[in-house]
Every structure is written in structure tokens, then in C-alpha cells.
Specification:
Number of strands: 0
Largest sheet: none
Radius of gyration: 17 Å
Structural class: mainly alpha
Shape: globular
Number of helices: 9
Distance between the termini: 61 Å
Order of helices and strands: HHHHHHHHH
Length: 210
């Protein structure tokens, strides 16, 4: 049992590091479309990478992850600066940020859900913590970039995150290992998000009758 818990903690940790790196890269690519200097871009990258997990930890009343372990902060800064250097050397499509953003969404959905489970949260709370971890950083990023958040106006975003979180929880409830459940849940989130971008899948918009 102890080895199982250690394995889950290691899995969540690795996914979390990958998630902050992916969202930091997405933050740089998104902020790069604005007239920001290096400091402004780093601020946006850190907000995107750390915002969701910070809100999750505050709601769960646990130590904020990047304060408790500065390797998350270092990873986000390193990924952001590396992306900043890359875009100065290579011309990239304007909407390329959607790809690392989708990857970060999937990774954070998994890590957020499993972090809540580790604290004994119910399946509903754990799934919503996964969604919050996945989407809130992107909301902060878009607000800082003076844009309407993608999660409110674009193709399937939070819905893809919640579907992945629910699949992860359902598989674990049926005895599937945490690693396999995480892979399935993250893959579903990523696939739904990428298909939504490609095919324009979105929820119905509010439209009052005149």
C-alpha cells in the first residue's frame, strides 16, 4: 500500500512538472502576440503555469505547490525563457500556443484530480479540482493579455477537461491502476480539445429571443 501511494505521488509530481512547462510555453506564445517586453511575457507565462494549481491548493487548504517545492517555479521559468528564445529564432504560427495549451490542460486535469483524491476528496470535488487546475491558469493568461478567456468563448475546453477527469475517476473506481487511468483521462482531454480546435466543436452560445 505504501509503495502504491509513493507511486501515485511520483506520478502526480512528474505530470505536474510537465504541465507547468507546457502552460508556461503556451503563455509565452500567447503573450508574444502582444507588445510585451521580456518581464511582461514571463509574468504571463508564470500566471498561466501556476494559476490553476494555486487556486486548487487554496481551495483544498493545502500548501501551494510551487511555494512548497520551488522546482515547479524553476520549471515554469525555464520553459518560458526557452520558448521566448525559440520564437526569436524561428517564425511560428500565431495560434501555435493552442497546442501546448491543450497539452497543459490534459496534464493539469490529471494532476489536479489526483491531488484532490490524495486528500480524500469525493469524486465530484476531485473532478472539479481537475477542471480548475486545468483551466484557471489559462483564464488568468487571457485576462492579462486583454482577451476573452478561451474557456468561456472558444471550442470545448472545460468540458474536455471534465470528461477526462471523470474518465480517470471511473477507471480507478473499477480497479484500473492510477497510471493507466491517468493516461486514459489525459488522452481523452487532449483528444477532445484538439478535435474541438480542428472541427470547431463548442457548447451552445447564449442567445436570447428577440
Amino acid at each position: 500500500m505504501l509503495r502504491t501511494m509513493e507511486g501515485i505521488e511520483s506520478l502526480v509530481y512528474g505530470i505536474g512538472i510537465a504541465g507547468v512547462a507546457a502552460q508556461a510555453a503556451a503563455g509565452v506564445l500567447d503573450a508574444g502576440r502582444k507588445p510585451f517586453d521580456l518581464f511582461g511575457i514571463v509574468v504571463v507565462a508564470l500566471a498561466a503555469a501556476l494559476g490553476g494549481g494555486t487556486l486548487r491548493d487554496v481551495l483544498l487548504d493545502r500548501a501551494v505547490f510551487w511555494i512548497a517545492d520551488q522546482r515547479y517555479l524553476i520549471g515554469a521559468m525555464a520553459a518560458g525563457l526557452a520558448t521566448f528564445a525559440l520564437v526569436r529564432l524561428v517564425r511560428l504560427p500565431a495560434r501555435l500556443f493552442l497546442l501546448p495549451d491543450a497539452l497543459g490542460l490534459a496534464l493539469f486535469t490529471v494532476s489536479g484530480t489526483q491531488a484532490a483524491l490524495a486528500l480524500g476528496a469525493s469524486w465530484l470535488v476531485a473532478s472539479l479540482m481537475g477542471v480548475i487546475t486545468g483551466v484557471f491558469g489559462g483564464i488568468v493568461r487571457d485576462v492579462l493579455c486583454n482577451e476573452l478567456p478561451l474557456v468561456f468563448t472558444g471550442e470545448l475546453y472545460a468540458t474536455a477537461s471534465w470528461a477526462g477527469a471523470l474518465l480517470l475517476l471511473g477507471l480507478m473506481a473499477h480497479g484500473i491502476s492510477p497510471g493507466q487511468a491517468a493516461l486514459a483521462g489525459g488522452s481523452l482531454t487532449l483528444a477532445l480539445r484538439l478535435c474541438a480546435i480542428r472541427f470547431g466543436w463548442r457548447l451552445p452560445m447564449f442567445k436570447a429571443r428577440s
